[in-house]
Write a structure and sequence with these properties.
TIM Barrel, 14 helices, three-stranded parallel sheet, 9 strands, six-stranded parallel sheet, binds 5'-deoxyadenosine, about 40% helix, alpha/beta
């Protein structure tokens, strides 16, 4: 097992059977060894720095109806909101002061936010905070829209692929959404020049080890600059209300595997990971993750952006409690960086596109 891990750490491409073997035998000593190798790579590439992103959840209106998601169109109980441009800029102002140099604009697929409004927003943020990166996480759009966002100054785009297995994709989404279209969006984003983020949920209903192997192979081949991996957590007003959540154990193990497969990847210890276990994010960092994304949204809307039950939005999770997060990271030997934290070699400002 150590040999497989060493080969992966050396940049070798493992066969599907070998990857399956790593997934099956993930207990005790193997697990510790995998995490140790993952940390070693993380240190080699990023030192002991952890990057922070200020997450601004600016709308919870969504035209999609994904079965797992609490802000799905059919959830009539969701209390919907949109932030104004002024409110969003106020989040950035507060965030900049706290030390954030990346703002992540995340929202449902909300038709109110036309390309004109989105590009206006990007330009306003870039004008006010030229030394900051802007990340978008607003779903599937046409190529021309992505091009307009990039031209307006957006640097990065998060669009989790959710599952790389077509049959599984169909179990998580209604028929109008397709894996083919999702992948097309991801290719467009990368091609346009965004630092692009893919990712998936661990333990989503219907997920098998075969699906996870598809995810790992997809990530290895697509080579995204960012990978978001968090446990599935049921939301009470969705068709998956009664389903079990994904586990901390498997999620953290997958973070370690992804760090070995993609040494330079920006890998968040997600909010969902912190939600299923109090020390979840620290465990994620110790497995190879190197990003945390505290919540910068105004206090009164935080509980409305409920993708799943019990989503944390205070303590280490809250941007205004950054000192607490710094403390938590420092207790495990890491330092929160005041830095854009671009993917190595991919910063537009450095002019060194990969
Ligand atoms: N549990 C965990 N993660 C979820 N997401 C959406 N719903 C849930 C849930 N119930 C994730 C999706 C999406 C990201 C913004 O949040 O992977 O891409």
């Amino acid at each position: 097992m150590h040999l497989l891990i060493d080969r992966l750490a050396a940049g070798e491409k493992l066969t599907r059977t070998e990857l399956a073997c790593l997934l099956e035998r993930r207990e005790g000593e193997h697990r510790d060894y995998l995490f140790a190798r993952a940390r070693e790579i993380q240190h080699r590439v990023f030192g002991n720095k952890v990057y922070i992103r200020g997450l601004i959840e600016f709308t919870n209106y969504c035209k999609n109806n994904c079965y797992y998601c609490g802000i799905r169109r059919d959830n009539r109980s969701a209390s919907r909101y949109r932030l104004t441009e002024e409110q969003i800029l106020e989040c950035c102002r507060a965030g900049y002061e706290l030390g954030f140099r990346t703002f992540v604009l995340q929202g449902g697929e909300d038709p109110y936010f036309t390309d004109g409004r989105v590009t206006g927003l990007i330009r306003a943020i870039k004008a006010g905070y030229p030394d900051c990166a802007v990340t978008l996480s607003i779903g599937e759009k046409g190529r021309a829209s992505y091009e307009a966002y990039f031209a307006a100054g957006a640097d990065r785009y998060l669009l989790r692929h959710e599952t790389a297995n077509d049959g599984h994709y169909g179990k998580l989404h209604p028929a109008e959404l397709s894996l083919r279209r999702r992948m097309e969006c991801l290719r467009d984003l990368k091609d346009i020049g965004f630092q692009t983020g893919a990712g998936f949920m661990v333990g989503s209903p219907g997920q098998t080890m075969d699906c996870i192997l598809d995810d790992l192979e997809f990530l290895r081949d697509f080579e995204p600059e960012m990978v978001g991996i968090g446990p599935f957590i049921p939301h009470h007003d969705t068709p998956f209300a009664a389903c079990a959540a994904g586990t901390l154990e498997l999620t953290v193990y997958l973070l370690g595997l992804v760090r070995l497969m993609l040494p330079r990847v920006l890998l968040p210890a997600t909010t969902a990971l912190g939600t299923i276990s109090p020390g979840g994010r620290e465990q994620g960092i110790l497995a190879g993750a190197n990003v945390v994304m505290p919540n910068l949204s105004p206090g009164d809307v935080r509980e409305k952006y409920l993708l799943y039950d019990n989503k944390i939005c205070t303590g280490n999770e809250a941007a205004e409690c950054l000192d607490q997060l710094r403390q938590a990271m420092s207790s495990i030997g890491y330092e929160v960086a005041v830095d854009r934290g671009d993917a190595p070699g991919h910063s537009k400002t450095e002019g060194s596109e990969l």
